[in-house]
Design a protein that fits this description.
Blueprint lengths: L9 H22 L5 E8 L4 E7 L2 H5 L4 H13 L7 E7 L7 H13 L4 H14 L4 E8 L7 E8 L5 H7 E9 L4 E9 L29 H21 L12
Parallel strand pairs: 2-3
Antiparallel strand pairs: 1-2, 4-5, 4-7, 6-7
């Protein structure tokens, strides 16, 4: 599929890229769920396609002597019809696990599979996220939580914007499905990231409603202004007195 991209129209290329990313993300989510998988980034160049896998345990993603990452590279190459040495996989460690919604959703999923109570597991995730300097966090769990009746529970803390440009830039969301014995439980984790001027922990751009009041500059007193004005006047008069007199014009010879 990816080998014939040069012959596609622009619209078909966008659709093909979206299908490729979706299927690749689904494959890595299932394969690397226990290793803290936190997303994938695809960088395409004319010569090679680089796939960067973000995870909390990069050593497990690489495997012993890089065996696992080579196996994943072979699977991706055969499935998407890449040429030899045309695709390369890398593993990148997540900077802050507490600010990654996908990592926290996977963590909550394994807590529920381990038999931990829903309320205790969700409050543990919310507390861990807020301790990682997040502005806000919300966890929604739906399904057969207790008994045969399905219901939804919502746990939140802090500040959360879901609409507008700030909702797209600042909010990190992840959805997971837990296959429990009594049925399927849905998990949705939303994290409101902090503003970071360096762009490491969160977005660089500040929020629209954040007003920064700067300290006013110190204004000099009237006495200081008068003294500076007198000094400038005295300096200009001294320069005029030291300047040579203008030369007299020579009389024209008739």
């Amino acid at each position: 599929m990816m080998a014939n991209r040069s012959k596609m129209s622009t619209k078909r290329k966008f659709v093909a890229d979206g299908c490729f990313y979706s299927e690749l993300n689904e494959l890595l989510t299932r394969e690397l769920a226990a290793d803290g998988y936190a997303g994938v980034e695809v960088r395409t160049t004319p010569m090679k396609t680089s796939i960067i896998i973000r995870a909390t345990r990069t050593q497990n993603v690489l495997g012993e002597k890089g065996q696992r990452i080579r196996e994943l590279t072979s699977v991706v190459q055969k499935r998407f019809d890449f040429d030899d040495d045309a695709v390369e996989l890398f593993a990148e460690r997540v900077a802050n696990r507490g600010l990654c919604a996908q990592a926290q959703a996977e963590s909550l999923k394994f807590k529920l599979l381990g038999g931990l109570a829903v309320r205790r597991a969700c409050y543990g995730v919310v507390r861990f996220v807020m301790e990682a300097s997040a502005k806000g966090c919300q966890v929604i769990v739906t399904g057969k939580l207790r008994g045969q009746r399905a219901k939804g529970m919502k746990f939140g803390q802090g500040y959360m914007i879901k609409t507008g440009h700030a909702g797209q830039v600042y909010t990190d969301e992840a959805v997971r499905h837990v296959l429990m014995r009594q049925g399927v439980i849905g998990i949705k984790v939303s994290i409101f990231l902090p503003q970071d001027p360096k762009g490491i922990m969160g977005p660089k751009i500040p929020l629209d409603d954040v007003v920064v009041i700067k300290e006013p500059k110190e204004e000099p007193s009237p006495e200081t202004l008068l003294r500076q004005q007198e000094e400038r006047l005295a300096a200009s008069m001294a320069q005029e007195s030291m300047a040579p007199p203008p030369a007299e014009p020579e009389a024209a010879a008739y």
